[in-house]
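User: Thanks for the earlier help. One more: Peroxisomal biogenesis factor 11. Can you show the sequence and predicted structure together?

Assistant: Of course, both are below.
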Amino acid sequence: MLSTCTAGIEKALKLVQSFSQVAEVIVASTPKEVAQWATAKDQANIARRFFRLFKWIDCWTTSYNLFQAYTGPKQIARDDKGRTIEQTRREADGDSVRVLLTIAKLSLLGIFLFMEMFCIADAMHITHNSWAPTLQIESLKFWFWSLAASALLGLYELFLLDFGPAATAQTPMSEKTQQVKVTVKADGKKERSTLVETTKTVPQGPSRASRRQAILKGIVADVCDMLIPGDIVGWMPLGPVPVGIAGSISAVLGGSDIWARVNP
């Protein structure tokens, strides 16, 4: 099923940008081809920036709501199990480490997107402000630390998956009933079809293996993305080819998750 998911389009543009960055160095053999690949890279980058132009609002709103929900006043009402509503809500939200890392990730990402927003006119060569390159470099530092917080969050969730309380808990199961058509043929008689109901037990929700795979994919994507601002800022000078390959890997991993979500 085809979809117009904006997140999927953004990942496709990221793949185009990253591949063009690699092709600009490896594939291009003439100055004209170098200019063509550079144009493709720059145009894909600008298109991606429009998709995230005001995304900092969502980042800060989600971060603030999470902080308010976790640190809000305790409630005295109790649920059917005798626990307070505050207890129930905190157990659903997770522990303090997970909440802290999530808030840090979203807050830092929001700062990066907010600062980058003021540089888009210079990226389009409409204006040429002297402060824009410095602001862009400083914003990338916040993106780097946001990705670092996201990677730490993934490692922490992986640790909880293996050694946390949920590691020893049994996977909840549910019974699924389905009808099966059975054809019976007796000697000298016509075939006769009947519907028989069968019941089988299946696990509820994603399995431990699928959760582990999703967490690992997120960690790999975050580490690959960290190479992009790390190279531009100068903390990890790797060159355009390794950074382009890392960006391509991140785009494919992120795009596959989006594809699975919109095409269940």
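User: Great, one quick takeaway?

Assistant: The first strand starts at residue 173 and ends at 185.
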